[in-house]
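Researcher: Quick test of sequence recovery. Tokens follow.
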């Protein structure tokens, strides 16, 4: 497996109508979000207004997960869903979607045949969690605290709050361990290309 760390200070944050957004990863690297020429894009966003309207993104599949706060997601003529910490919603980017509530969220967008899932969990201080890389790409975002990723006795990566680790599969079912020196909140996106 290939492990690449991007630190918080290396990421770009921009303003959108409801708050700020930080792009964590985009593939291919030369893709531009506004041109909708990506296969996948992963980001976080703050929602700082009580009610916000999602940008229409035709031909984009979306996964949203709350990291902090609570959101009520309303998809016109589809359904409404309440999201608390680490709850997810999967929906089509061309649905008319609004949200009510202030929160920080984790977003995964895919196009074409690519698919994605998102999950989140907390690690207590000095704990560890074994993971298996089944997807083509796994993104691990540290929303709070810090972690160490250990793949072997020699390969270790340290990451702190706001950083993102991209892990690319080289062979099936590769295993690695997350270690938490302190309490940590983790968001994971798994991308199937």
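Model:
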């Amino acid at each position: 497996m290939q492990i690449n760390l991007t630190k918080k200070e290396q990421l770009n944050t921009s303003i959108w109508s409801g708050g700020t957004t930080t792009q964590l990863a985009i593939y291919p690297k030369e893709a531009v979000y506004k041109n909708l020429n990506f296969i996948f894009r992963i980001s976080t966003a703050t929602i700082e207004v009580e009610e916000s309207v999602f940008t229409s993104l035709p031909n984009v599949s979306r996964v949203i997960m709350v990291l902090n706060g609570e959101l009520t997601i309303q998809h016109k003529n589809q359904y409404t869903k309440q999201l608390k910490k680490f709850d997810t919603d999967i929906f089509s980017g061309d649905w008319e979607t609004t949200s009510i509530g202030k929160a920080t969220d984790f977003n995964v967008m895919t196009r074409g045949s690519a698919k994605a899932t998102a999950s989140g969990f907390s690690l207590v201080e000095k704990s560890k969690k074994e993971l298996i890389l089944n997807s083509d790409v796994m993104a691990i975002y540290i929303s709070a605290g810090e972690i160490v990723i250990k793949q072997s006795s020699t390969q270790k990566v340290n990451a702190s709050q706001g950083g993102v680790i991209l892990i690319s599969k080289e062979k099936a079912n590769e295993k690695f361990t997350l270690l938490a020196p302190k309490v940590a909140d983790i968001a994971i996106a798994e991308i199937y290309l």
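The two ends are 16 Å apart (CA to CA).
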